[in-house]
Amino acid sequence: MQKTILSIQSHVAFGYVGNRAAVFPLQRLGHDVMAVNTVQFSNHTGYGAWRGEIFSPEHITDLLTGLEERGALDGLNVLLTGYIGSAALGAVVVKAYERLKAHNPNMIWCCDPVMGDVGRGFFVQEGIPGFFQSEALHRADILTPNMFELSALSGFGVTTRRAAHDACRRLHEQGGPEMILVTSFTEDGDDPQEIEMLLSLKSGALFSVATPNLPLVPPPNGAGDATAALFTGYLLKGLPPEDALAQTAEAVFSLFEATQASGRRELAMTAAQNAFTLSPAPRFPVRKVG
Question: Which of 35, 177, 187, 240 is the most buried (most CB within 10 A)?
């Protein structure tokens, strides 16, 4: 069941973040992906030094117009977005969303609200958090924040599973997404050898899946980008949300295992490619916790 996805994210020549982390897993799942790159850097910014260019909002708008002129946006199934470099680019994404909805009212938007992380705080320009709050939340169908981003969007201090559930409920009730996937979660007092993903549905259900927390130092960049893409890709295969969660946990953990085995900092995408499929028996059980 092939679906068509437009992915608007960053791009690096070396390493796997943004579109480099999202496009290949989606293609391995059998989906057709059009990548629009918001930046082109030599490497991700986690190294502290990089070279390349941030593309202007006008450049991105021009690319989207070209796709529209070719008929490439007709029947598009999913808009997938990640790092937004500026509020001006956010406005371009919203306009793209409106254009895509006009082509296909059933299109869904999976929004990864990249803003910051636990221990690092915010690492985006001023105006980006406000963009997600005022423009993205009530339009997106799927939201994929980490713990820090969930706290920032909801106003809750997310340190417990109960607080995470309450934070997700607040976003759902504010007209927010049908699904919120918290891509990495650890509760105060939990075993540090495990890490969870939480999936909150607008219906009120909350699901959890835990995997071993492999000692990857430094933690590889791009894992959240890959997680958002994989979860979306499994949903597009027709899986119920909780089954898509189980498949995502299996694939991401396999990616981490391959990365650990490589002894390198970057995600081992090529080595882990056989994990980007439908596993007949995911190793990690999904529990309903709310």
Answer: 177
Q: Is 44 within 8 Å of 36 (Cβ atoms)?
A: no
Q: Which residues of 53-81 are buried (b: 16+ CB within 10 A; e: fewer)?
A: eebebebbeebbeebbeeebbeebbbbbb
Summarised one tens digit per residue, pLDDT across range 94-144 is 999 998 998 899 999 999 999 877 767 667 778 888 899 999 999 999 999
Q: Residue 221 — pLDDT band, cuts 50, 70, 90? A: very high
What is the domain count for the chain? 1
The model's confidence at residue 173, banded by pLDDT at 50, 70 and 90, is: very high
CATH of the domain at 244: 3.40.1190.20
Asked if 249 and 211 count as a contact pair (C-beta separation under 8 A), the reply is: yes
Q: Please answer whether residues 214 and 254 qualify as being in contact, where contact means their C-beta atoms are separated by less than 8 angstroms.
A: no
User: 219, 227 in Cβ contact below 8 A?
Assistant: no
User: Does the structure show a pLDDT above 90 at 86?
Assistant: no
| Complete DSSP assignment for the chain | ---EEEEEEEEESSS--THHHHHHHHHHTT-EEEEEEEEEESS-GGGS---EEEPPHHHHHHHHHHHHHTTTTTT--EEEE-----HHHHHHHHHHHHHHHHH-TT-EEEE----EETTTEE-S-TTHHHHIIIIITTT-SEE---HHHHHHHH-----SHHHHHHHHHHHHHTT--SEEEEEEE--TTS-TTEEEEEEEETTS-EEEEEEE----SSPPTTHHHHHHHHHHHHHHTT--HHHHHHHHHHHHHHHHHHHHHHTSSS--TTTTGGGSS--SS-SS-EEE--
CA 75 vs CA 3, 6, 79, 101, 105: distances in Å: 9, 11, 11, 9, 9
Q: What is the residue range of 259's domain?
A: 4-288
